[in-house]
Amino acid sequence: MQTIIEVENVSKSFGHVKAVDELNFYVTKGSLFSFLGTNGAGKSTVISIILTLLQPDSGSVTVNGFTVGKENEFIRKEIGVVFQESLLDPLLSVQENLAIRAQLYGMAKQEILSAIQRCAEIVDIHSILKRRYGKLSGGQKRRVDIARALLHQPKILLLDEPTTGLDPQSRQQIWKMIGHLQKEHGMTVFLTTHYIEEAANSDFVLVIKEGRIIAKGTPIDLKQQYSADRLFITTTDHTALRMHFLHDHVLFQEETGGYTIDLPNTLAAIPILHKYQSLISSFEVRKSSLDDVFIRIHDREGGRLC
Amino acid sequence: MLVFAKRNLLLYFRDKSAVFFSLLAVFILIALYVFFLGDLIADGVPDFPAKHWLLLSWIIAGVVTVTSVTTTLGAFSVMVNDQATNAYKDFRVTPMKQSVLLGGYIISSLSIGFLMCIMTLLVAIAMLFATGEPVLSFTQIIQSVGVIFLAVLTAGSMISLLVIFFKTSNAFAAASTVIGTLIGFLTGIYIPIGTLPAYLQNMIHIFPISHIAALLRQILMDAPMAEAFAQAPVEVKESFQLNMGVVFKVNGWQVSPLVSVMYLLLITIIFFILSASVMKYSRR
């Protein structure tokens, strides 16, 4: 597997605040890479460094073989960015906006026209090309933003919280497009989010906190590593069940209408169910969502460096 | 650089109400002179031939000078807005160099300032025509356009140093209002310079934009002055010129047009170098 972004021992401080602390990771070419962290975790700093807008204090970052700080212009041609905020000019039409940005990448007139057509096709904005950017809905703006990022045919698409503030339908549409770009166009997609559920489709997830990596792996790995399954039981004979639990030293919590028991894994529910079968009126094994995993990773903190 | 400047121009002129109001400010200034200040000044001087023509020309020179500063300043709002809304980030991620982007902002702002001043000059010519006074000759127009170009360049260089320190659009708008008000006094335009105390006169002499006003007055008032003072002794004409700020006398030495132009060019270069180095320093 070829790596396309490499971050080695990168640190960056602002005054006394260490935003990024000895960070190491790499992104595989053609993968969908999710970069997670709460607000203030250092995500934006890392992105700014990859985008060549900031210089790391120490360590090195290479993008497609080019080094940040030395070959910035080449790197900028390789990356298409979708910022968290919508940054195109609200008073200009979509077409004008795209044409102006394309010119800044040194494209010729004919090239620009075909680039706009190509990108409009991908994100389906043909019908709104003539409309003012400022008058578009949040979802439409986002699609235009993605089109703008694709104008110069970058190898890497970097999206900073691309779905924040969008309605569920637009959100799904954006994810479909991102998946399409990765699979059909072979682009490397690097995105940040604080909804870990959204990272479920990615190939690799990296979670940072206070500038350090606190967890990494595929979404399934993380789920297995951090998820906690819980067994929920309801019963008709409360006293009997409770007696049995106390006798067998089973740790349980009372909940409205039943009891929950923490499980090391899903399968651990079977012997418990067998044992108390006669007393159980219904049961449910609750698998934790990725959001729970994310919160768990964060709570466990202590800088569990993997 | 031109591509980026074109975007800024497009953005500025797309906001039609903003363009309208910045022009309206100029018209209000003219009206203010015509209806109030003009009479006030006219009452202060004795009657002489071509008085209306002469004073109107003096007013036009002042208004064009003020316009050169205020409209150029207004045009820089595109740059301040881009910084304030983070829109600038989206340009920084392109392969364009930062110096090229800044150059684009400066070029577009200067073009807007220049265009607006020309508009003002055209309105002024129309006003001369409407009040039955002789309109400007071809040479006068060419000379005025030249001075306007220099005015916008000098104002632009000073403003480009100023805008670096404004991070929000509101702060910039407030500062623009203050500057727009002050500039008329700093250049001796609202009231004749001769009525001011000596230390204020010295301040006006130092302030570069005043030299723009003086140069424009020399161009525009040349013909009416010749007519007004045809019968009068030379001393009367000289004291009038000093009083109205047509020429400046520093330490008993009269500033020639060439010296004014050189002074303006020098200031322009100094301020552009200053702002370039401040920008470079503040980027770290």
Give short descriptive properties of this protein.
heterodimer; A: 306 residues; alpha/beta; Rossmann fold; Alpha-Beta Plaits; 2 domains; six-stranded mixed sheet; B: two-stranded antiparallel sheet; elongated
Radius of gyration of chain A (Å): 24 Å
CATH architecture tag of the largest domain in chain A: 3-Layer(aba) Sandwich
Described by the principal axes of the CA atoms, the overall outline of chain A is: elongated
CATH superfamily of the largest domain in chain A: P-loop containing nucleotide triphosphate hydrolases
Kindly state the percentage of residues in helix of chain B.
over 70%
CATH topology call of the largest domain in chain A: Rossmann fold
Write down the overall geometry of chain B. Answer: elongated
Question: Total domains of chain B, how many?
Answer: 1
- Unreliable segments of 5+ consecutive residues of chain A: 302-306
Report the sheet-strand fraction of chain A: 25-35%
The count of domains of chain A is 2
Q: Please write the string of helix (H) and strand (E) elements of chain A.
A: EEEHEEHEHHHEHEEEHEHEEHEH
Biggest interface between protein chains, with counts per chain?
A: A-B, 23 and 19 residues
CATH class wording of the largest domain in chain A: Alpha Beta
Secondary-structure class of chain B = mainly alpha
Q: How would you classify the quaternary structure? A: heterodimer
Secondary structure tally, helices of chain A: 10
Characterize the biggest β-sheet of chain B.
2 strands, antiparallel
